[in-house]
Design brief:
- The complex is a heterodimer of chains A (395) and B (265).
- A six-stranded mixed beta sheet of chain A has the order 3-4-14-9-10-13, with helices on both faces. Chain A has a four-stranded parallel beta sheet with strand order 7-6-5-8, with helices on both faces. In chain A, strands 1-2 form a two-stranded antiparallel sheet.
- Chain A has helices at residues 15-32, 35-47, 63-66, 84-97, 111-123, 133-138, 140-148, 163-176, 194-217, 232-238, 267-270, 308-316, 326-340, 346-360, 380-394, and strands at residues 4-5, 8-9, 55-57, 69-74, 102-107, 126-132, 152-156, 181-183, 223-227, 247-255, 272-276, 279-283, 320-325, 367-372.
- Chain A has 15 helices and 14 strands.
- Chain A has two domains: 4-46 and 83-195, Rossmann fold (3-Layer(aba) Sandwich); 52-81 and 204-394, 3-Layer(aba) Sandwich (Rossmann fold), CATH 3.40.50.1100.
- In chain A, helix 4 packs across helix 5 (111-123) and helix 4 (84-97) crosses helix 9.
- Chain B is of the alpha/beta class and 265 residues long.
- Chain B has helices at residues 2-13, 30-42, 62-73, 78-90, 103-109, 111-121, 137-146, 160-169, 193-203, 217-222, 234-242, 246-262, and strands at residues 18-24, 47-51, 97-100, 125-127, 149-151, 153-154, 174-177, 208-211, 229-232.
- A nine-stranded parallel beta sheet of chain B has the order 5-4-3-2-1-9-8-7-6.
- In chain B, helix 9 links the parallel strand 7 and strand 8 (208-211).
- In chain B, helix 2 (30-42) packs across helix 4, helix 2 (30-42) packs parallel to helix 12 and helix 11 packs antiparallel against helix 12 (246-262).
- The radius of gyration of chain B is 17 Å and the shape is globular.
- Classes of the chains: A alpha/beta (395), B alpha/beta (265).
- Chain A binds chain B through residues 10-16, 18-20, 158-159, 164, 168, 171-172, 175-179, 274-278, 283, 285, 287-291, and chain B through 54-56, 58-59, 61, 65, 72, 77-79, 102-109, 129-132, 134-135, 152-159, 162, 166, 177, 180-182.
- The complex binds pyridoxal-5'-phosphate.
- Residues 82, 84, 108-109, 111-112, 187, 227-234, 300-301, 345, 347-348, 373-374 of chain A line the site of pyridoxal-5'-phosphate.
Chain lengths: 395, 265
């Protein structure tokens, strides 16, 4: 690992963190070669997380209008309800090996926070989760779950009080206690080696999905779609298809749907490369290099940066990045619930919305595999309110 | 670079600790910054570290975060900060001025342009807290070309090899982080600091300046002979923030810097 994805990635951090990052990388490599670690991880993924998760064929969405077959990879069915747990379990085991009993983490949607809290409760580690106050308000059920699972939740009031600010708070805390604390970063962002480690822990999604799809269909899907906030569920999903003749599509949050005029969280569509939170990647920034405000109805996508590997895939064209607006995500949220019996997370609803756009341009008979990264229980209050608001506005 | 090196050399000869005063550019306003720099230098600051505000200053605690945000709110940019340096020179400030800022605004400005413009304005170097030596190659190249300083960092947990690498790469001085954590006022120096500073001293010849948590004359006095320089930031900005008007802010800088300076001998 050299920590670069083309010209992206790297380790732009305070000197205080360089040692701990080197230690983490070294331990990660040792762990991969240690059957005790890999067997324990596999066992926990099976017996605690509930893997493998199935794939599910849709009967109406995409089919009725476009004759395209949509399949979902069901990360919503993991314990705690989102893909985040795959990485949390892996890193918690690593922290255990490093002898670090105190875990800190950031969370946006609260799914990573809940996954960390659950993993730490199960493995006997102490967990503190940083969460922007705005996100805590819009994902209240997850705040309660984290507390019930024994984690301390620290609300962050800085900046926009969302994911980026929670990451800032967690990094500052790590700088203060680098020797005793492991920062359990929840996406493929931040300094090397996090983007690689998190992607590798999430690659189980792609490995399973590819084999399952082949088994069910006797062939690979034509298109694979995932939502991209930091980019971990997408990176894990795509990792299994990089050498296949499969179109890969990442869906970012178009927010208010004003294109590049602000009110979105789509750095891969409208950003410029820069350095934020330890890594060089596409960012939403102004002419002076200040990080800009973002907006998405999905807190897990509401971030001004993105994993450096995605920036590289954007430049090379390996992955296409499109966007879905708040409205389109809400439509998909409602449609998947009513027509297929599955309530998706608002983040994952962006992937479904993106897949439906892709399906419109596909030949009938094509197959599209969508990573349904999480379930929507956490979003019921805010999604129902938004749907009601929309109804009122349209009267 | 020469002016920066000379400052540390002169003070070493005099057996005085070089006093580096950190001021956030544009706090509380761009109009006051040169006056505050002047006040610090007139009261005995040997070097000015001028902070370029950034929206996400990961190395900074609440005091400096707040000053940076206030500066951004009044429109302070990297370009405006470089202008402040030029104005300070025009106003007769002769002390070395190093610019402290995070990677992103500097990269956005463009490294070649940045180092050229900083040099033209009369700046003496850069301190970039989210730039470890391993990522510093292109920056050092610009610093060399523009004959400017470039401080890298040592941290309490840095291995001897890393401290040696940071020291060797640094131009002007090595920034020695006094403690883990972000910037901020601390009441006590870390009890293990003497052994740590000896390790840093043994790792290279580059002058060392200790910062993070240094806020009182007692701290400065306790470090005499153990480091070439000390850096005071949050304490100074807190004093500035507590004063009521522009004259009070200059007076606050004068008072604190004078008392710190007295402890450098
Ligand atoms: C269900 C769900 N999907 C997606 C994301 C976005 O993260 P990533 O892009 O890293 O997968 C989140 C983040 O909180 C999430 O909770």
């Amino acid at each position: 690992m050299n920590g670069r994805f083309g010209e992206y990635g790297g380790q732009f951090v305070a000197e205080t963190l360089v040692g701990p990052l080197e230690e983490l990388e070294a331990e990660y490599h040792k762990a991969l070669l240690d059957p005790e670690f890999t067997e324990e991880l596999d066992r926990l993924l099976k017996m605690f997380v509930g893997r493998p998760t199935p794939i599910t064929e849709l009967h109406r969405l995409g089919v009725t209008e476009n004759g395209v077959k949509l399949w979902l990879k069901r990360e919503d069915l993991t314990h705690t309800g989102a893909h985040k747990i795959n990485n949390s379990i892996g890193q918690a085991l690593l922290a255990h090996r490093l002898g670090k009993k105190r875990i800190i983490a950031e969370t946006g949607a609260g799914q990573h926070g809940v996954a960390v809290a659950a993993a730490c409760a199960y493995l006997g580690l102490d967990a503190t989760v940083y969460m922007g106050r705005v996100d805590a308000e819009r994902q209240a059920p997850n705040v309660q779950r984290m507390k019930l699972l024994g984690a301390r939740v620290e609300l962050v009031d800085l900046g926009t009080a969302t994911l980026k600010d929670a990451i800032n708070a967690a990094i500052r805390e790590w700088i203060a206690h680098p020797d005793t604390t492991h920062y359990l970063l929840g996406s493929v962002v931040g300094p090397h080696p996090f983007p690689t480690i998190v992607r590798n822990f999430q690659s189980v999604i792609g490995r399973e999905a590819r084999a399952q799809f082949l088994e069910e269909n006797g062939r690979l899907p034509d298109v694979v779609v995932a939502c991209v906030g930091g980019g971990s569920n997408a990176a894990g999903m795509f990792s299994a298809f990089l050498d296949d003749p499969v179109r890969l599509v990442g869906v970012q949050a178009a927010g208010e749907g004003k294109g590049g005029d602000g009110g979105h969280a789509a750095p891969l569509l409208y950003g410029e490369p820069g350095v934020l939170q330890g890594t060089r990647t596409y960012l939403l920034q102004d002419d002076d290099g200040q990080i800009q405000l973002t907006h998405s109805i999905a807190p897990g996508l509401d971030y001004a940066g993105v994993g450096p590997e995605h920036s590289h895939y954007k430049d090379t064209g390996k992955v296409e990045y499109i966007s879905a607006s708040d409205d389109e995500a809400l439509d998909a949220f409602a449609a998947l619930s009513a027509h297929e019996g599955i309530v998706p997370a608002l983040e994952s609803a962006h992937a479904v919305a993106g897949a439906l756009k892709v399906a419109r341009g596909c030949e009938p008979g094509s197959t599209v595999l969508v990573n349904l990264s999480g379930r929507g229980d956490k979003d019921l209050t805010s999604a129902m309110a938004a749907l009601k608001q929309r109804e009122e506005n349209s009267r | 670079m020469k002016r920066l090196e000379q400052t540390f050399t002169d003070n070493r000869v005099k057996e005085e600790t070089t006093l580096v005063a950190y001021i956030t550019s544009g706090y509380p306003s761009l109009g006051e910054t040169v006056g505050l720099i002047r006040a610090a230098v007139d009261a005995g600051a040997d070097v000015i570290e001028l902070g370029v505000p950034f929206s996400d200053p990961l190395g900074d605690g609440p005091v400096i975060q707040a000053t940076g945000q206030a500066a951004l709110d009044t429109g302070t940019t990297t370009a405006a900060t470089i202008d402040v340096v030029a104005e300070a020179r025009a106003a007769g400030v002769e002390a070395p001025i190093v610019l402290m800022g995070y990677c992103n605004p500097f990269l956005r400005y463009g490294l070649t342009q940045l180092y050229d413009d900083a040099r033209t304005a009369g700046a003496d170097g850069f301190v970039v807290p989210d730039l470890p030596v391993s990522e510093g190659g292109p920056w050092l190249e610009r610093a060399r070309a523009a004959d400017l300083g470039q401080a890298f960092f040592a941290a309490p947990g840095s291995s001897p090899e890393r401290i040696a690498a940071s020291s060797a790469a640094s131009r002007g001085f090595l920034y020695v982080l006094a403690a883990n954590g972000v910037t901020g006022v601390r009441s006590e120096l870390d009890p293990g600091i003497d052994a740590y500073l000896e390790r840093v001293r043994a790792a290279g010849d580059t002058p060392m300046a200790v910062g993070f948590g240094i806020s009182r004359p007692e701290h400065v006095a306790a470090l005499h002979g153990r480091t070439d320089g000390v850096i005071v930031g949050s304490a100074l900005l807190r004093a500035v923030g507590e004063a009521r008007d522009a004259a009070g802010r200059r007076r606050a800088v004068t008072e604190l810097v004078s008392s710190l300076k007295a402890a450098t001998r």
